[in-house]
Every structure is written in structure tokens, then in C-alpha cells.
Amino acid sequence: MTAPTQPSAATPGQPSATPDLLYTQDEEDLRSAVRALLADRADAPTVIAATESDTPYDPRLWEALATGIGAAGLLVPEKLGGQGASHREAAVVLEELGRSVAPAPYLTSAVVATETLLALADGEDGPAAALLAELASGARMAVLAVPFATPPSGARAALTSLDGTVRGVADAAVADVLLVPTAEGLYAVEATAPGVVVEPLVPLDLTRPLAALTLSGATGTLLADADASTTAVRRGLLAGAGLLASEQLGIAEWCLTETVRYTRERHQFNRPVGSFQSLKHRMAQLWLEVVSARAAARNAADALATGSPDAPLAVAVAQAYCSGVAVHAAEECVQLHGGIGMTWEHPAHLYLKRAKADSIAYGSAGSHREAVAELVELPAP
Predict the structure, then answer these.
(1) For residue 157, what is the DSSP state?
(2) pLDDT tens digits, residue range 95-118?
(3) How high does pLDDT run on average in the chain?
(4) Which of 54, 171, 350, 375 could form a disulfide with 105 if both were Cys (CB 3.0 to 4.6 A apart)?
(5) Using one digit for the tens of pLDDT, what is the confidence trace for 313-362?
(6) How many other C-beta atoms lie within 10 A of the C-beta of residue 26?
(7) How far, in Å, are 76, 179, 362 from residue 131 at the CA level?
(8) Could you tell me the pTM of the whole model?
(9) Is the dihedral of CA 180, 184, 186, 189 positive or negative?
């Protein structure tokens, strides 16, 4: 897959060109392929069964997504073994993963860890480039060893060296490589190396496992010094927060679609419950929120894809808005499904839990609103 044509950079001092937020034909084709795969390998009964097992991730699903479709290497340049696409295509994959709440380590490995390594891979040689090639091929998975709630502005070392504990690391239990930021720099540590203990935690969202990572005398490959590490980690977290908005969009879209469908089919007093005016108003309001969330999420993905200087602002706006929309849509989905929405067998609870967990991932909505206030220069009164 070749990289999409990017709009020319704006002249310094002039406003940037208006981004094209519509989906391209290539993006729609990618969506169709991912949606078909998830419908076959990650339908609701399969996901529910996976959350009740000891292994929520299906290796065959990840292999098909990462290598069969090539989604793992979308952000990696072709010279490093990737697809040479952009954040826009990765955002489409995350929309579909959010729509199915499929348990797959795409966000943590193919986005955050990959973006962190991209900040360090200046050429085709070196440990960062070699690891990127492995991630792009789907042969290995990596995670950034920071708490899942860490915002981009919190990109600082949690450990002074390769000794200590980091809690709440998403997908650490299935990672092959751990990218550990320390005061000394960024290390790549093998998950099975001596001195590495990954202890699974009980998360709210059972489709995205969390773990406590404990290092005791562990060794690893130094990828970057402290300053370069901070920059790389911030870039990884910024991409994660920006594309998480697309996952939240997918959650909200599924909840709205399924709620509208159910209220059309469910009859009470000899008429569809969706015909009651109060429910019409609630779903119309939700539709407006989802449309706005799509604009915010697409703008963040486009800003990341084009390297816009406004990317931090676009990401902060998207997260400040989309996290609340996803939670609201999931809450309405549970309530408007009535009694069936409260059952364990119906998938609505999976979407509510994913939306709630995502609302604090890579920074809460409140922290992103604070970031917006800092980034926007308000005119003097």
C-alpha cells in the first residue's frame, strides 16, 4: 500500500489548508476487509466467550489482521518492511476494532509502540529499525511500558533504571517486547528475559488486559538516551490518544446503529418503541454527537498523517469530545435495550466497559481539555 497524497504544507504565517476528512476509496476498501474479518473471527458470541477464558486474544485473528491484511505495518515505511500508509488508514482499522470490541493489541503495538520506534529509526539500520520490521510483519508484538492512563503530556520515565514496577500496562501480558522508558533512556526488553515478571490485573474492560510489570535486574537494548526517549514516548502517546478517538467513534457508531435497529423491532402498546417521541429525541441527539465525534476523530487522524503542527491540538480536541460520546452512546444502548441490555449474554456491556476504560486511556477528557486551554491562544479582551 502506498502512502496517500498529502496536502502541501501551509506557508508559514498562513492558515493551513482545510483537511479532507472524507474517506478515500482505499480506506473504504480497507474497512471492508477488516469488517469482513472481524465478522468472521470476532462476532459477539466469540468475544464474550474470549472474555470468560484465560486467553482473550485469538492468535489466528491477530495473524490474519496483522499479516493477512497487513494492518500491523500501516504506519511503517516500505523501506522498513511496512505498508507505507498513514494514520488515516490506521484510524479506519481502529474504527472497525471499536465497532466489534475485538480483543486485539492493535492500538498498543501497531500504533503506540510502532510510533515510538519510528521516532528513533533514522535509517534502515539499528535496533529500532530492526524491531520495527518485526512489528510490521506481525511476527512480534511490542508495548510501551507506561500506565494506560498516561497522557501525551505525561511522557516521562516512570523508572530510574530497569528495576521497579509499572502498573496498568495495557497488553503487556501478550507482548514479546517491552519498550521501557527510564531515566537512563528507552530500553527494549524481552518479555521472557530473566528478571521480568508480568502479573495480569483484573481490568474493567476484559477485552483489553492490563498487567503490572516488575523488573528486577533485567537487561535490555538501549534504543535512545533520556532526551530522545522522552520525545519518542510523547510521539507514541500522542498517536495513541489521537487514534483512540477513532476506536471510540467505532464504539459509538455500533451502539447507535444497534439501538436504532432494536427500537424499530421492539414493540410495546402495539407499536415500535422507537416511534415514541421521547426516544426519537434521545437517538437524534446521539446521532448529532456521533457525527461530531466523526469529524473530531478524522481531523485528529488527518493531522497526525500530515504532520500538522496543530496535531497536538487536534488530538486534545478529539479526546476531550469523543470519550464522552462513546460513554454516552454505550449508556443509551444499555438503557434503551431494556431488560436484555442488562444481561451478560448481550454484548452491550462489552461496549460500555470498553468506552469507560477508553475514557481514561492516554489521558482523561479533563486532562485533554486542559491541554486545549494551554494550546489555544485566546485573544486579549
Answers:
(1) -
(2) 999 999 999 999 999 999 999 999
(3) 91
(4) 171
(5) 999 999 999 999 999 999 999 999 888 888 888 999 999 999 999 999 99
(6) 15
(7) 11, 11, 23
(8) 0.92
(9) negative
Please identify which residue in the block is written with the cell numbers 528478571. Answer: 195
Where do runs of H (alpha helix) occur along 44-170? Answer: 44-51, 59-63, 87-100, 114-118, 127-137
State phi, psi for 84 to the nearest 5 degrees: 70, 30
Of the candidates 373, 51, 115, the one whose C-alpha atom is nearest the C-alpha of residue 244 is 115
Cα–Cα distance for residue pair 102/172, rounded to 1 Å: 17
Alpha-carbon torsion angle 8, 9, 13, 17, nearest 10: 50
Range with the lowest mean pLDDT among 4-13, 127-136, 141-150? Answer: 4-13
Grid cell, residue 228, equals 530522545
Q: Report the residue count for the chain.
A: 381
Cell of 250: 467505532
CA separation, residue 76 to residues 19, 191, 209, 256 (Å): 22, 23, 25, 33
- Write out the three cell numbers for 70: 497487513
Strands 177-181 and 185-190, sheet pairing:
antiparallel
The x, y and z cell numbers of residue 43, run together, are 462476532
Which has more pLDDT, 177 or 340? 177
